[in-house]
Design a protein that fits this description.
Elements (H helix, E strand, L loop, with lengths): L21 H27 L3 H21 L6 H13 L3 H12 L4 H17 L3 H11 L7 H13 L3 H13 L5 H4 L2 H14 L3 H14 L3 H16 L11 E3 L13 E6 L5 H17 L4 E8 L3 E3 L4 E4 L2 H14 L6 E4 L3 H5 L7 E5 L5 E6 L4 H13 L1
Parallel strand pairs: 2-3, 3-6
Antiparallel strand pairs: 1-6, 2-7, 4-5, 7-8
Helix pairs in contact: 1-2, 1-3, 2-3, 3-4, 3-5, 4-5, 5-6, 7-8, 8-10, 10-11, 10-12, 11-12, 13-16
Length: 394
């Protein structure tokens, strides 16, 4: 999982149900069973999806099943059923419809239902990208939430999106401390340890950062997570050392550059691709910082490679020849106002040399040609801007 570039599907597990007659309870139990099966089937399909087409079909099948479930139970009038409808709507990404139902529940008189509705509201606020609102509400309802998937998913979210480094660390530690995490959450343990390691790095405690990664490696068996952790450990070990030269087949916005010739400049290398949404989130900050600070010695170097296909936020050209990929990339640079140098490699060597397992990854190189910091993911744009300014003005 890429740092701060995580796409989390809140599974919204059903919590304890009380206060229902026998008939209603049977209906609720059946709704719950059907919902859990739809969710489980979707998670299995996604875990086994090898192509975008398979993933898209899994989403379509899930949404069709959820729509049928909601239609089947549309006549039921019960707050417990309404909470289940909220969960089904959220799983199918119908956030506004879910929000309307939650607001109605919050205006009721049943205090237990209102507490549980607030727990659902946290997920809605996260889906709406209101991280501050979600965090504030979660602080209120956390003591009343029962142990289970929903609580652990919120721990996971706030390990990355809480409002302060201290709060992020609190929820990261709560998440990794959970015993018997459900399978769909276990895969994120390594990434949460990475977040803790990055916080230690940002605090200037490199030894602690390395120790956290080593601890995570000792507890992680999933291959993808291990590769990401090993990559981060390699990048941490590169801090304080001279930056390795990068080779490219094609240079855009610049003649061929070498890091040796760029000594005396502050260099920011951004490993990126047009198809990567978090990469596109970082680009505006990099483009603006370059224009503002290039006269003070800042060089932003976008490093990518030929992928043999092309996709961005507007186009999906599928498989393409190099010439077409280059033309489309040029158009992308123009649209995103990327005037800084961009290098396009013909292979993975540059990515391998720098230990890149996920993008965007940014390396900060001082005027002596030494790597002084590294960041993974889109992160906080204001933090990134400040970090660039501080390095240039050092």
């Amino acid at each position: 999982m890429k740092r701060n570039s995580i796409i989390l599907i809140l599974t919204l597990t059903v919590i304890g149900m009380v206060g229902c007659g026998k008939g209603n309870q049977e209906t609720i139990n059946k709704f719950n069973t059907d919902f859990q099966k739809i969710r489980s089937d979707f998670q299995t399909s996604v875990a086994n999806a090898k192509t975008r087409e398979i993933y898209t079909k899994a989403v379509s099948d899930r949404d069709a099943a959820l729509e049928a479930l909601l239609e089947k139970n549309k006549a039921e009038k019960d707050d417990e059923i309404e909470l289940l409808r909220v969960k089904a709507l959220m799983l199918s990404n119908k956030v506004e419809e879910a929000d309307k139902k939650v607001e109605a529940l919050l205006s009721g008189k049943n205090e237990e239902i209102k507490i549980r509705a607030k727990a659902e509201k946290v997920g809605i606020l996260l889906a709406k990208k209101d991280k501050e609102g979600a965090y504030k509400l979660f602080r209120e309802v956390e003591p009343s939430m029962k142990a289970g998937d929903q609580l652990y998913e919120y721990y996971l979210n706030f390990a990355f999106y809480a409002s302060t480094p201290e709060a992020k660390a609190e929820y990261a530690n709560k998440f990794v401390a959970v015993k018997d995490l459900p399978i769909h959450l276990k895969q994120y343990v390594g990434y949460v340890y990475q977040e803790l390691a990055f916080q230690a790095k940002d605090d200037g405690n490199m030894d602690k950062a390395r120790e956290i990664i080593k601890t995570a490696l000792s507890k992680t068996t999933e291959e993808r997570s291990r590769k990401s952790l090993e990559s981060q450990l390699k990048m941490l070990d590169m801090i304080g050392k001279p930056a390795t030269e990068l080779k490219a087949e094609k240079w855009l916005n610049s003649k061929k550059l070498t890091l040796k010739k760029l000594k005396g400049k502050v260099v920011l290398i951004d490993f990126w691709a047009t198809w990567c949404p978090p990469c596109r989130q970082v680009i505006p900050v990099l483009a603006a910082s370059y224009e503002e600070l290039k006269d003070k010695g800042l060089v932003v170097l976008g490093y990518t490679k030929y992928y043999g296909f092309y996709r961005d936020d507007q186009k999906n050209a599928g498989k393409v020849e190099k010439s077409a990929e280059l033309t489309l990339t040029r158009e992308f640079l123009k649209r995103f106002k990327m005037t800084y140098p961009v290098a396009i490699a013909n292979d993975d060597k540059g990515f391998t040399d720098y230990g890149i397992e996920s993008i965007p990854t940014l390396f900060f190189i001082d005027r002596k040609g030494v790597i002084v910091d590294v960041e993974m993911g889109s992160g906080d744009p204001n933090k990134l801007k400040t970090k660039i300014e501080n390095l240039v003005n050092a």
